[in-house]
């Protein structure tokens, strides 16, 4: 596509977050690749489907400029392409495994969990942050999507949803299991509950402030049957871990207690108890003042 093609502005807007990510990655390019151009990276990218990593490295080496034509530079080039272009951290990609095998090993096999239940509407990014106090980490590494951080205090969400469409339309779709990219997209829709007005306002604020790669128009509301945990195969285990962290988290401070309506009965019981306590306290203070006036009447 050329700059003057019809629809270019729309494409540029859709992939704006991806281009910014690539630009930022280029600012931290390894010194061994300082003489490389974008063309070198595009040519090298095409070699990553050529077999195990050792063979890919050997194929990339002659494509680099003379100052970077070493095996070590070729290794760094593959790592850079993974992070900057494919948005996948491939530093743990072993020499005798293919990129497809590496992705499968990192993600794990299909879940064996058989329990059936529906993820509630409260299972969304805004509630994670505002109620459970779990920080939302907008992630650029696809393989870290839905990871729970240390001490269950953060949830990673891969936000460059347009990259999933890019993968589906390229030869790199073959490195992912069938239906994986579509399921990934649905998990993003799951945690970004646009149908909830409060969640949408919260998300819009982050979207405008951070320039995320997914906008309100990219999200489809999942209906109740679509929220069943059994509808998610590749990400099911991470969703279960995230839900467990969410369910066991305790609000801190009155503001989070006010927002925490995950258990409506418990919520009403707590606030009714607070109201009763305040009314009782007012009654005690009033009685004390009356007794004071009895013993110390005004002159």
Order of helices and strands: HHHHHHHEEHHHHHH
* Overall outline: elongated
Return residue spans where pLDDT drops below 50 for at least 5 consecutive residues: none
Number of strands: 2
Q: How large a portion of the residues is in β-strands, by DSSP E?
A: under 5%
Fraction of helical residues: 40-55%
How would you sum up the major sheet?
2 strands, parallel
How many domains comprise the coordinates? 3
Number of helices: 13
Q: Output the radius of gyration.
A: 26 Å
How are strands sequenced across the largest beta sheet? Answer: 1-2
Label the structural class.
mainly alpha
N-C termini distance: 92 Å
> Mean pLDDT score, rounded?
84
Main attributes of the structure:
two-stranded parallel ribbon; mainly alpha; 2 strands; 299 residues
């Amino acid at each position: 596509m050329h700059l003057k093609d019809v629809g270019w502005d729309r494409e540029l807007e859709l992939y704006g977050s991806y281009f910014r990510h690539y630009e930022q990655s280029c600012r931290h390019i390894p010194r061994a690749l300082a003489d490389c151009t974008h063309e070198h990276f595009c040519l090298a990218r095409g070699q990553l489907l050529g077999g195990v990593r050792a063979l890919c490295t050997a194929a990339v080496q002659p494509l680099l400029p003379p100052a970077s034509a070493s095996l070590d530079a070729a290794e760094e080039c593959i790592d850079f392409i993974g992070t900057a272009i494919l948005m996948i951290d491939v530093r743990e990609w072993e020499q005798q495994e293919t990129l497809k095998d590496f992705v499968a090993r990192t993600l794990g096999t299909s879940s064996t969990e058989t329990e059936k239940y529906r993820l509630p509407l409260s299972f969304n990014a805004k509630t994670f942050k505002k109620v459970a106090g779990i920080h939302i980490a907008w992630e650029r590494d696809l393989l870290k999507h839905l990871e729970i951080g240390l001490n269950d205090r953060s949830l990673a969400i891969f936000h460059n949803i347009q990259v999933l469409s890019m993968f589906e339309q390229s030869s790199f779709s073959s490195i992912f299991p069938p239906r994986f990219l579509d399921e990934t997209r649905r998990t993003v829709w799951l945690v970004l509950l646009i149908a909830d007005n409060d969640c949408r306002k919260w998300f819009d604020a982050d979207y405008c402030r951070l320039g995320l790669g997914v906008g309100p128009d990219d999200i489809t509301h999942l209906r109740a049957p679509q929220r069943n945990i059994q509808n998610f195969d590749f990400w099911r285990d991470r969703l279960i871990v995230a839900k467990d962290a969410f369910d066991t988290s305790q609000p801190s401070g009155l503001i989070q207690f006010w927002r925490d309506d995950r258990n409506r009965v418990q919520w009403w019981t707590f606030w009714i108890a607070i109201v009763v306590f305040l009314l009782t306290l007012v009654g005690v203070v009033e009685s004390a003042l009356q007794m004071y006036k009895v013993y110390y009447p005004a002159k």
